[in-house]
# Entry
Amino acid sequence: MSRLVVVSNRLPAALKLEDGQWKVRQGGGGLVTALAPVLRNRGGVWIGWSGAAESGVDVDGLLSDFSAEAGYDLCTVSLTRSEVNDYYFGFSNEIIWPLFHDLQSRCRFHPRYWRAYLDVNFKFAETVARRSTSEDYIWIHDYHLMHQAFFLKSMGVKRRTGFFLHIPFPTPDIFMKLPWRWKVIQALTEYDLLGFQTVQDRRNFARCLQRLMPEAKVRGRGAVVTVNLGNRSFRLGAFPISIDFNQFSSMAKRKDVIGRTFELKEAVRHRKIILGVDRLDYTKGIPERIRSVQTMFKRYPDLRGKVNFVQVAVPSREEVDEYRELRQEIEQLVGRVNGEYSLPGWVPVHYLYRNLPHDELVAYYSAADIALVTPLRDGMNLVAKEYCACNNTADGVLILSEFAGAAAQLQRNAYLVNPYDVEGVAKALHRAFYWSREERRASMAKLRDQVRRNNIFWWVDSFLLAGIAKTLGDFPEIETVHFERS
Ligand code: GDG
# Structure
């Protein structure tokens, strides 16, 4: 029986230095939940970096307990501090991340970063080659590791490979700015299956491919199409990632979570809650969102004292100056809005700079009357889907950026906005505030149906079906381990 080998930059468990000691912290999220049972049933392997850039740490020892409990092998690729700086912070986060989110002015195209990216990809590919056989299916995740199939082939190692890009794929006018554009496109053509979040991303890729390799012919229609290139062919597909709907929905129904939801509503004296939840990242449009809330209070005095905006910002890439500056900008904006509009007993903006425990996050989702999900650009945005899953009463409103991948699926029933248009977002908030219960229920019930049907297991199935003509149903059912986010 062939096995599934998952490869991602980070392992589902990460090592973190806390009070001078290395600790194993479990990663979370839908990807781990969905892939863990498949990996367990096939005796699979998850290959990735542990998050520790130090030598002298017994990484394998620390992770072995986790491996035993999870039921599949974790295999670490160790990185030096300079590799982490140049491949991860440099190439991945200072070049591909901003470029693929249409923010090319933030890119730093250092040739040093490119070389480190290639070296690290080679290192990963060596590990993949060593830890897999030609029977296995290798599923590679995300923009850090675009060169896996290329290096495997250049080593003469035959593997069936699939790649999924979690972030958007840009249009040719933006992609062409990448100094190593041809090499990146060429490397991607070495996969058997390339998966994107939306049909638009898949189209953007096909257009870049045809610009750089005019001999490539794209055939077919629908979610998965075929590319003929020379004497080989490969497939391109749109596979919108999702969440474990039932897990979120049932957690929101737990007695303690219902209790906590009530406490949160009570804390704001049952005023309406507008909620934003994001990793603190410049692609998420947090400053623009706070300006929209400010504009809302300015233009619509009827909402003053009646609504609270709660922004949860999860610390992210705190080592990087740009992210520290973003944090300062957000904190100043929050201060300004609160300074302008607070009233005795009412502070309009509540700002939480921390990672909430999973059940606390679910309580916030359940307590919110309006979710304000306004990234400037986003591959998918799982927060939008998690909000719908937790909204068991189906009377919340989802205001969603038209530039989030999720808009492609949810556009009919979410309130779509342009996140750069602060007046437009303010107007949407005002309207959503006054939506009748029937209007809210009609939209939210449809949103929930869609997320329930197209959940994370559906996503894994669609990818495996396109990649190896298998679905999760081909694996015996076992109990899924749900990892809490640390
Ligand atoms: C990338 C792409 C794509 C947030 N705050 C807390 C918390 N979270 C969790 C949410 C959600 C996740 O973080 C964020 O997922 P997103 O999809 O919104 O965004 P990225 O992190 O940028 O993810 C994105 C995704 O990959 C999947 O392909 O959708 O476009 O950029 O799951 O729940 N979790 C906890 N506490 C928090 O305070 N526990």
User: Anything to note?
Assistant: The two ends are 34 Å apart (CA to CA). The chain has two domains: 4-241+456-474, 245-453.
